[in-house]
Amino acid sequence: MPHYHPPKIASSEITPKSLYMRRREFIGAAAGSFTAMALGSQALAAPLAAKPSIYKLDEKLTSKEDVTTYNNFYEFGTGKDDPARNAGSLNTRPWTIEVDGLVGKPQVIDIETIMKEIPMEERVYRMRCVEAWSMVIPWIGFPISAILDRVEPLGSAKYVAFETLVRPEEMQGQAGLFQALEWPYVEGLRLDEARHPLAILATGLYGETLPNQNGAPIRLVVPWKYGFKGIKSIVKITLTEQEPPSTWNRLQPSEYGFYANVNPEVDHPRWSQATERRIGEADGLFGGARINTLPFNGYADEVASLYDGMDLAKFF
Ligand SMILES: Nc1nc2c(c(=O)[nH]1)N[C@H]1C(S)=C(S)[C@@H](COP(=O)(O)O)O[C@H]1N2
Ligand SMILES: [Mo]
């Protein structure tokens, strides 16, 4: 059962209210590993070995504290501190990814198989959110091609679609009356973008397995694109002929493109994309040092040729 679509019932609706409130207090009060034990089988952060990065970056790493407490993961709430507070309830074992669509060998791949059989590499990348803040993160992961090669895409496959888990009883942002987004969160890449060696599926950061709030057990990282392309907690990958839908584009196409390549010359309709706030750096009057945003987030030499002949402003 690789793909779990339970009915939309909040745990507060199926558990007596008093018990639910007490459980929330209890979970909130318990710390770290104790919370994990109380909730069952989600994996704790564990050391994760990786080959050193072949892509060097001469920039200061964002602290692990900031990387793991300032997050966007609307399945756990819309506040930046919600995911770190709420994502402990997600069970990341067992976990499978269904890979299907235009492939010769569709299959369901277990996360344990991925961790055992695919060599992990460290990749220190800039991460630029469309909201104009950024980080430098030491990810651990592997090129998406390692998965694509296993399923043998057909000649007709042109795009790769990704889907996040739907499990409202463990993802409180998917439960209850207010739903920030349409679930599942979906994203996509052109097949040649997905096959670019810079595009990875990440399984860890800072030398350990991914914390839940960062998209455990496996998430996409495409460093030359805005952060919303980096879909978390992936359960399904589908090869398609047509451009697949993407969550933010579907919600507001005038503000969030399918391509979403970082481009300081194309402003968001409501703010400039020319500069960014590097999280954790020299907090000033406006809450953080502003630095210039680079075309393709600084990866133009590697990836610009993917877009030869395209009007990049038009294809935001
Ligand atoms: N499933 C899912 N994936 C998601 C999001 C989300 O809300 N849900 N937010 C995106 C956005 S807007 C950003 S900036 C990055 C943030 O990744 P981080 O919290 O690990 O830094 O995750 C992306 N992936
Ligand atoms: Mo973002």
Automatic annotation (TrEMBL):
CDD domains reported in the protein's UniProt record? YedY_like_Moco
User: What highest taxon heads this organism's lineage?
Assistant: Bacteria
Gene3D superfamilies of this UniProt entry? Oxidoreductase, molybdopterin-binding domain
Q: Which cofactors does it use?
A: Mo-molybdopterin
Consult the record and explain the modifications the protein receives after translation.
Predicted to be exported by the Tat system. The position of the signal peptide cleavage has not been experimentally proven.
Keyword set includes Hydrolase: no
Identify the residues that the record assigns to the Oxidoreductase molybdopterin-binding domain, covering every copy. 91-248
SUPFAM superfamilies assigned: Oxidoreductase molybdopterin-binding domain (SSF56524)
Cofactor binding note: Binds 1 Mo-molybdopterin (Mo-MPT) cofactor per subunit.
Task: Give the EC class as a word.
Answer: oxidoreductase
Q: Which E.C. number(s) belong to this protein? A: 1.8.5.-
UniProt key word Lipid metabolism: no
Subunit text: Heterodimer of a catalytic subunit (MsrP) and a heme-binding subunit (MsrQ).
PANTHER family from the xrefs? PROTEIN-METHIONINE-SULFOXIDE REDUCTASE (PTHR43032), PROTEIN-METHIONINE-SULFOXIDE REDUCTASE CATALYTIC SUBUNIT MSRP (PTHR43032:SF3)
Family per record: Belongs to the MsrP family.
Q: What name has this protein been given in UniProt?
A: Protein-methionine-sulfoxide reductase catalytic subunit MsrP
Please name the source species: Peteryoungia algae
Query: Which taxonomic lineage does the organism of this UniProt entry have?
Result: Bacteria, Pseudomonadati, Pseudomonadota, Alphaproteobacteria, Hyphomicrobiales
